[in-house]
């Protein structure tokens, strides 16, 4: 044992190879941070482009035929409490309670079988997260009594929302975050749920070149 002590003493004092050991320890952490910055930059980019794409999609939707079935075309009479005589056509819907009929929210998902969606989708497909389909777009037509008049065109608030989309990481961050159990078991590998975004605008009637 004693004859080995000088060798062990020299070995303990030598620093040859320590740089490689330190590099092996630090490099994975550095690469994780580096690619993490790239990933979050990509996420910020997709948030901006997706919001702009939804804006453009909604801008087209408000001047085209409805994306959902059963959307009214005309404001019909509601159960008005203004007496027994019928409310005259032409009166604004906000001039009293239940002047115009409220059809409620009409909700559907996007489908390329709809001609309006077939027009919109090629415009926005490249700006949305990878793997997104028209089915990830939820369309809502909401009644607003401040828009339109009795007997006139039905003028809803049109909302397009991106739902159930995923953002795919290029770094292992997606897998690491999935270990926390905060994501769905069915999520794609290396992915996280993309934040839901929506844009709302009032519809427009262009039949007479007048915005309602």
Report the principal-axis shape: elongated
Low-confidence stretches: 182-188, 207-212
SS strand fraction: 5-15%
User: Strand-and-helix sequence, N→C?
Assistant: HHEHEEEHEE
Q: What's the oligomerization state?
A: single chain
Distance between the termini: 97 Å
Structural class: alpha+beta
Strand count: 6
Helicity level, as a percent range?
25-40%
Any idea what the radius of gyration is? 29 Å
Biggest beta sheet summary: 4 strands, antiparallel
| Structural domains: how many | 1
What order do the strands of the largest sheet run in, or round the barrel if closed? Answer: 1-2-3-6
**Number of discrete helical segments:** 4
Structure description:
The protein is of the alpha+beta class and 212 residues long. The protein has one domain. The chain is built from four helices and six strands. It has helices at residues 5-13, 18-61, 115-124, 173-178, and strands at residues 106-109, 137-142, 157-162, 166-168, 191-193, 197-202. Helix 2 runs antiparallel to helix 3. The chain is elongated and about 95 Å long. The chain starts with a helix and ends in a 10-residue tail after the last strand. Mean pLDDT is 79; it is low at 182-188 and 207-212.
């Amino acid at each position: 044992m004693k004859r080995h002590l000088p060798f062990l003493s020299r070995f303990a004092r030598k620093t040859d190879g320590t740089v490689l050991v330190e590099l092996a320890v630090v490099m994975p952490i550095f690469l994780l941070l580096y690619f993490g910055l790239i990933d979050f930059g990509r996420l910020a980019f997709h948030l901006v482009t997706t919001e702009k794409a939804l804006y453009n999609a909604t801008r087209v939707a408000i001047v085209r035929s409805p994306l959902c079935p059963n959307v009214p075309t005309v404001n019909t009479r509601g159960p008005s409490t203004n007496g027994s005589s019928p409310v005259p056509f032409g009166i604004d819907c906000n001039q009293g309670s239940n002047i115009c009929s409220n059809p409620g929210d009409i909700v559907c998902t996007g489908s390329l079988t709809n001609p309006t969606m077939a027009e919109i989708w090629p415009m926005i497909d490249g700006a949305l997260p990878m793997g997104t389909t028209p089915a990830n777009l939820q369309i809502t037509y909401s009644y607003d009594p401040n828009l339109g008049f009795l007997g006139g065109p039905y003028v809803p608030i049109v909302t397009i929302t991106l739902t159930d989309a995923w953002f795919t990481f290029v770094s292992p961050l997606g897998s690491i975050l999935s270990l926390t159990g905060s994501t769905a078991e069915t999520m794609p590998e290396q992915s996280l749920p993309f934040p839901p975004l929506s844009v709302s605008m009032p519809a427009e009637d262009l039949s007479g070149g007048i915005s309602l």
